[in-house]
Fold this protein.
Amino acid sequence: MAAISRLQPTDAFQAAVEAPVPEGVPRARGLPGDLVPLAFHLPALAVLALSGLSANRLGVVALAAAVQQAHYLTWRRQPGKLCVNADIDQIAWMVVALQACFLFTAGVAVAATGGVRSPLLVTIAGGYAAGVAAVGDRLQTRVLLAATALVVGVIALLPPVLTGPGLAGAAHGLLTVMSVLGIGALLAPVHARARKRRDAFARARKEMASDALARAQSLEQIGSKVAHELKNPLTGVKALVQLGLRNPAEATSHERLEVVDREVTRMQEILHNYLSFTRPLQTVTPRRVQLGPLVSDTLVVLSARADEARVRLYAQGDATLEADPRRIKEALLNLVANAIEATPAGGEVVVEVRPAGDEAEIVVRDTGRGMPPDTLRRIGTPFFTTREDGTGLGVVLARSVIAQHGGSLRYESEPGHGTRVRVTLPRVSNGARHGPCSARG
């Protein structure tokens, strides 16, 4: 619809009437656009004359063809005016008005050559077909369809004295074939113009997507550089603060220095997570990995935090797959750390690994407070967190890493009944993937 809405009156009008061959599209049979109607009318008149059609009826058909050709040429030579915000309904009415002339003249020719038995009967549907090809199925083209049916009905009611005996034998068959080919010649350039618009729209969309991706990657690179530049000054500030905390002479400032120390630590954590988040733009390096030992190593790293929170950690199961162990471990560190944070003292966090056909499944299950539906829906949104000291990047990082491996991550939770994080990874790598856009599921 977006492509249709950008139609210009001149284009739609032209396409619906005579369908000029668009630039770059070969013309049918090499005929100039002005000669396409004549290429049908002149041979048709010749066949009608040779078949013995009376001079009066032949004159009526010739007059109808002349009016149709004159109307066509009058419109075609109108100076082109381009309207960049044309109303598609207005364009559709213009198309219908133009096709009304075609419908009337075709109806006259049909009535003079046998009525509903005329071999030219199929040409009456040409106006409706061209209108639909140009502006689609809408109220205006349905009005045109109703008018077409009305004209056919009126022709069917005409007495034989007006319609004549009609044609028979080879002349009837030849004109029927010519009528069908004439409709095809009328519609072919219309479809060519529509195809050209679709191709142009597809190219524009692809270019926009490429530009957006390039801008996103550029912003990621700038953000990564800024984060790297901030890390060193923060390290210096933290060192000076810690020196002050160890100096008894500055005991009166220790409370304020502890606040500064905590905030600097928080800023360093944000920068670390941000740099990890932007890293998926790089290529992963998959190799054969045993998930059981990898999970155990991850839990060992987090054991001090779990001890402090008095949360028990368990690992069970094993499976092998092709993955980047460093990136998978980063993802697990974030998921398990979140589970520890959400679990009250005395609770437990279990990480279970198991093969599942062509995939391996990692389930992180905690006995924590769980999440309401609104929080569950927003989990994984960058910078969304329910913790005062959270960064809102941990789940984003984990999801990006898993997506980069062609896997999926799904949260299941209910308030008061803990949370279950289900990670599914393919056991055979499909090759290195780039960025979170390669996410599956």
